[in-house]
Every structure is written in structure tokens, then in C-alpha cells.
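User: I've been going back and forth on whether these two constructs are worth ordering. Before I decide, could you fold them both?

Assistant: Sure. I'll take them in the order you sent them. The first construct and its C-alpha cells:
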Amino acid sequence: MHKPSAETGPDEGAAPSLARVLHNRHIQFIAIGGAIGSGLFLGSGQAIARAGPSVMVAYALAGIAVFFMARALGELTLNRPGAPSIAGHIDDCVGRWAGFITGWSYWLIWVLVGIAEITAVGVFLRFWAPDFPQWLAALITLVTLYVINRHGARFFGEMEFGLTLIKVVAILALILGGTVMVVMHLGPPGQPADLANLWKFGLAPHGVAGLLVTLPVALFSFGGTELVGVTAAETAEPEKALPKAINGVILRILLFYIGSLAVIMAIAPWSTFSGGESPFVMVFDRLGLPAAASIVNFVVLTAVISTCNSGVYATGRVLAAMAERDQAPRSLAKLNARGLPLNALNLSTGAMLIGVGLNYVFPDKLFAYVMALVAALLLWTWLMVVLAHLNFRRQRARVGETGKTRFPMPIYPVANGLVILFIVVVVAIMALDPGSRPVFYTAIVWFSLMGGVYVAWGRRRRLGSGGIAAEGRSG
């Protein structure tokens, strides 16, 4: 049978399918971009102030948890190609209710992230154009990314490659330049860069409490790592590209997060940082780079555009996959001649367009509002991935399949238990911390609402078609 190429599209008369146009370099940079966001460039200053050098332990623990989650998702993706979506694995391996709630929750994550990031674009543009309307910057950004994604996954991959490259270059410049400062003890008079700055002012100045309170921040910094599972259906060689990208998670965390944080705190004592300034600005300023603040602002601007680009891409694919499983209107599963879920993309971008209106009404409060719910939804998604993997392995054992799987998760099932325990600890911290408690309550409301929607949706499907064929799946 003739196999259509990624460039020419599907065979004449054949039903279009998602085109496998993403290659290894795209997947590698999508994974890197997912793990590196504005949280590192901006939020790391607040994390350092709250935990001191022990913040590196928080990021290491969170990184290990995310790595095991990504390995679980990688094993599911490569061994269950018939369910090319995160919600599809959860649907089959945990239960239809879990797949429904997770699918819509993951869609909402990226819609909210997209709204937050186009909001951030307007905020960062104020640095150069203080009078430019924030809502207009959000609209221009969203329309541009929609046009790019409308041309297919290849355009998305190329843009993500370029935007991520900017972030990587900035981090490497900080690490290399900062290392030179530490080795040569450079810095302002009386404040030379010194490796001893990491411990002589206290490794954990605020004790265990300071470490624990930064765990949620560290964990959420890696949000987007799971996007490699969403791209699998459009990856040319997923069996090669996905393992490389996922195995690189640990290296990226060590180099980009822990490496840069170590260099930052070696250049200046942890007590000099606060949540009001980017540590990258301070380091580039001490390196003698002209317009250090402008450089960092540009890098952070590309970071938020990159994240929004991922959001536009992910929402369309997730919604189309949900529709394929009768968990969303079937019209959203339709692909155009390019193999693009255009209806799902249009609806998702329309949902983000609401953010443009909100930017007009609430220009100074929107970012904090929309990110509050994202945190809890992300934890739910990762928890369901790990549970799906656990049940996948158990299902294989029950039917007597003892052969080795592709890309098996290391130290199973201990790793699953560790990730579940870590997520439970983070949820407990969020519930007990007055600052994050509203997130906990908001999540309860959302999941209760989605549970009711699932029951209503199932009843409507049964009345309309005489029963859902897949209703009897494990659950």
C-alpha cells in the first residue's frame, strides 16, 4: 500500500490523519521548552528567598518526580499507540470517568496557560512600550500563533525550536559567564563571586519549612514536560525520538535549573534575592552586559510566547482526541486535508480569545487568577498518568503478558509509589498554606463540576445511541 508522505498529505480519497512531521530535533526542543518557562527566569528569585540554597533540593526532588511521570507516559505511549493521547491512556487504564475528567482538565490547563501567557506578553511589552494596550498585545500574539498552528504541526515545531533555542542560549550564557565570575572571584567591591556563598550563609536558612513551601513552585516549573506524549501522534519516529527526549529530562533539570541556581547563588548570597527582580537580570548586570534588563525581558518574552504556542497546539490535539472517544462533540475530531483538527483548534483558540476580553476588563489581575487553577489540574493529570501506568502493568500481568515492554519505567512499581507520595505531599502543602489554599478549594469545585458533567454526558450518549460501547471498560 502506498504510504502518503508528510509533505503531500493523505492519499486521494483516504480519510486524513495526523501527519507525522515532527522530527527528533523538534521533540527534543519541545521537551526542553516544556521544562523551561518564565518560572525559571522570573520566579526563581522568590524561590531562592524562601528556601535559600536548599531550593536546589526542592527542584531536584520535583525533577525526579517529573522524570518518573514522563517515563510512565513514555512507556504508555510507545506500547499503546492506539491511544495517542494522555486522556486515552487514562480512559483505558484507570476508567472512563478518569479519562473524561483528565481530558477536559488538561484541555483547560492549556487554555488557561494560553490566557495567562498572552497576558504576560502585554505585561513584558510595557518594558519598551508602556502605553501599548495590553489587550491588543494579547490579541496580536494569539492571532499570530493561531495562523502558525493552522499551517500544521511542522510550523509549530519549527517555531518552538527557535523560541526554545533563545532560552537555552540565555541559560548557557548565564552558567558560563557566572562560572567565570566564580572562578575569578569577580563582582562588586566587598561582594565577590565565590562558591562558598552556597553554604556560608546557611544551606537551609528557613529550615525544612522553607524547603517544603517551595516544592509546589518547583513542581509547577516543570509543567509542560508531558507535552511530548501529546506530540507522539505527529512524530515521525516516536520510538526513537520520545525516549531521547524523556531521558534528557534529568540532564535538563541538572543543567538548566540546578546548574543555573547554583551559579546565581554563588555569585551573590541568597539573601540578596527577592521575588521582585529576576536573578538573571542581576547576573547579566554583574557580567557587564549592557541593557541586561532588556536582554532578560526579551528572553522571558520569548519564553511566554513559546508556552502559549504549545498551548494553542496542545488544546486542539487534546480536544480532537477526546472527540474520537465520544467524550466531546464528534465534529471536533474532524481533520482537514492537512491532517489538522481545525474545528478543535478553532474552538480552543476561541476559548483563549476570551482572555483578550478579560485583559481589557482586568488588565492587572488576570495572570494570578488563571494560574491558580492550573497548578491543581496539573497535579491531577500527572497523578492519573502514574496510576494509568500502574494499572497498565497490572493488566498485562493479569492476562499473562510477561514480555518486556518498550521503554520500561525504571524501578517499577516503587517509582509509581514515590511519585504518588510526592504529589500527595504537595497537595497537603497547598491545602495547609493560606497562600495556596484557594487553589485547593477551586480544584474541588472543578472536579465536582466535571463529575456532574460526566454523568450528564454519559446519560445523553446512552439516550442518543442506546448505550456507550466503551462504558464497560475498567473503571
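The second construct, handled the same way:
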Amino acid sequence: MATLGGTEAQAGWYLQASLIVFLISRFVMVSVMGVVRPALLLAGMALAGTGLCLFAAGGPGMAGVWAVVALSACLSLMFPTIYGIALEGLGEDTKFGAAGLVMAILGGALMPMVQGAILDAQGAQLSFVVPGLCFLVVAAFGVFDLRRRR
């Protein structure tokens, strides 16, 4: 709202746009995974997400807002792809691995608090460094899987 200089209703339009981007991207990413290795796509989209977050952190006005909307495209494939890659080849340990991945979602509960603390202390723009770092961790996981399965 601060960037837009508008009302909550106007800002809500951008939330709706990001949800539509997420929905469309989910279908697009599934079809792209038929051609591109999931780990490569994951790493690429995570790096794109990092770039968008850093742009939003330092980006000027509306361009930064659109970068945040575009982040939904990067997020659309993250969890199901991470889940599939991590559980591949576990055999009898798949249930244990799946339980561990579900517990790992705790990071998704803690990092918004970190981002919120930075938001309160430094402002909304700078707070996007936090998800940018998280995207880097996901990119590292994708690269790790690519190297492991050469």
C-alpha cells in the first residue's frame, strides 16, 4: 500500500493477480517438467525468485510490486518439486522421509516472522531479502540434486 499510495482494495488487486499467476504457472511448470529435469527447473526458478526478491528489495516503485507478483510464478512449483525430488529412491523409508519433509515446513512458519521483524525495523522493501535467501537455499538443493544424479 505504501508503494502504491492507495487503499487496501487497490493493493488487494495485486494479491489476486499473484494468485492467478501462481495458478497459471503451476500448470505451465508441470508441462515444462516433461521436457526439463525437475531439479534444473527448480534451481532455475529459485534463482529467478532470488533475483525478483532482490529487485523488489531495491526496486523502484511499481516495478518492485510487479516483481513481488511475479514471485508467485517461482513459488508455483517449489513444494511439490522439492517433495518429489527428496523422496525419490527412498524405498521403504519414504514414509519417514515424507514425515521429515512435512516437519521441515516449520521454516515456512518461522521465516515470515523474520521477514516481519525486518519489515518493522527497516521497511517492506528490504524485508524481501529474507525470501531471497530462502530461494537461494532451494536453488542449492536443486543444484545438489543435479550434481548427485549426473
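Notes on the second construct follow. The first helix runs from residue 8 to 32. Residues 81 and 92 are 20 Å apart (CA to CA).
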